[in-house]
Amino acid sequence: MGVQTQRVEDFKLAKEPYYLPLGNEVEMFEAAYSARLPVMLKGPTGCGKTRFVEFMSWRLDRTLITVACHEDLTASDLVGKYTLRGDETVWQDGPLTIAVKTGGIAYLDEIVEARKDTTVVIHPLTDDRRILPLEKKGEILAAPDEFHLVISYNPGYQSVLKDLKHSTKQRFVALDFDYPPPDLEEEILRSEASVDADTASKLVKIAEKVRNLRTHGLEEGVSTRLLVYAGQLIGKGIEPVAACEATICKPITDDLDMQRSIVEIVATQF
Amino acid sequence: MTFGPAVGNVGMYVAREMLASVPEDQRATYLSLVEQISELKYQLGVEVARQLPRLLASHDTAHVAAYLDQVKAVAAVGWKSGVEVAKQLPDLYDAPDPALADAYVGIITGATAGPDEDTETVDLAAELDRLEQELREMEPKVQRAQELKSLLAARDRRDEKRRKHAVELASVLPPILARLRPRHRPTFLEQVDRVAAADPESALEAADTLLDLLNGERVSAEGAAEWVARGLDVLDRNKEVGRGYFRLGSKYALEVLDELREGLALKQVARVLKLYATALCGRDVAIRSTQEMYAIEAFGSDHVVLPPDMRFFEDDDANFTAYKVATAHGAGRIEFGTYEFRLDELDGLVMHLSEKYGGSV
Fold first, then answer.
1. What pTM was computed for the model?
2. Comparing C-alpha atoms, which of B199, B184, B267 is closest to residue B239?
3. ipTM of model
4. Is B318's Cβ below 8 Å from some Cβ in A?
5. Mapping DSSP to helix (H, G, I), strand (E, B) and coil, where does residue A206 land?
6. Which one of B132, B294, B297, B316 has the largest count of C-beta atoms within 10 Å of its C-beta?
């Protein structure tokens, strides 16, 4: 089976992704897009940040190029680099450059994980210059009006070593995300996991209780994404307590007492 | 010439220069004579060894033999007189009148020996010998008697201590019994009786401990009996360690208690229940044992009080469920403000209900 090269067009969503607005985030994003202001999405893991960007890219009819940031990500990985291809040395655009060139949405997920010298690369794109210097090629790319830069990070993971520099933070319009209110979260579960209203209600109640443990030894509460997983397993015929144990309890903590207390909370519902 | 075994221990008495002053052909005789006389007394041997070279040089062997006989005769009645006679006699042999030496020996012998003993003295001496013999034979018995005396004295001291602790026990038992739940009294009395019979001091400790164990439902009647039996074994081996056991001051005592504990201990599941309650009501809830009731005022409102052990059911899972139900109940009270109710809010509540439902409430 040959390796298929993806085209930029492949990054445009053909089908509307499910997203249930929780507030005015859609309007805010659209306003920022039209004003060409970069956007920063803040919120706990699994609360719908990535889905929101996908939804907005579909809504704005833009390609979406997502980069999952990590600590080994270099500026060259983002911008591009010369690579050997046969006997030739050719320039390979990085995802950020592709997004700039095609006027798409560049989404740098968990930007805080990237090294600080890497994040500085995006600075010229985030102010009124809207340019991307390609130092190795000696070129400067001007971003078209359609280009939009979106970053996300989870404030819960912040530490002295891993935090965005203020010079980076203060270039973005920030949209706060959190777990949806119970009624909306139930609606999301019914839609995403195809569970009945009763199961959705129980899962949301469990999540609500488990999230109360966030300041008592649990780093993060159970995410909407994990609730969807639980609902999907239940939909596949897995016994609810076992499904919740596998999706809600074990992924979020290794503390045995904590795990047991979560199982007991699950058992009060199912 | 060497001093071999043949000359015995005469080397102790004969200095090298003395031996050198004896003509070589007489040295064996000299040493033999010294050996004979030294058997009587060491000091006598030394003196004779000192005088003999002179006698051997100036007199014949028969004369030397007479010297030794006279010295022995005096020494037989008193060895100190014999030493003096052995020293002076050679000078008297050199006197012109040979009768002097014999008279001198006679006087000294008579003076040393004294008059002949009468019958009474002999009898007394014999009696004394007999008594001394008996005393020597009695010596082990005297020693044993002293040992027994010490042993009994120690026991007396222990008995005194025991009686003192028995008095103390008599004083503390009634208030302990008053605090004991009536259904535990037979078990308590039986076990304290066992310990008191072995050691009243331990019974003082055991009474206090059993009060807590039984009132706190931490052991059953059988458990209490087993705990006491193991403690008595320890007490039998070492009193002090045994007393420590009965006051729960030893690791072993606590281990035995854990082993005998029935049901589910709160401390085993307290953290799970705390997290469970905190998750349910969304507030930081503390789990407290009923044994901590003395500090109830200091706990604040967000706590759930539970028994230290749950033993409603045979298996721990069911006991945990019982704990869980009690915890959920407590968490519900915290969440919905049962303990935050204030009387001054009652008026508003009545009005609110009157408005809501109409009529008089």
1. 0.60
2. B199
3. 0.81
4. no
5. helix
6. B316
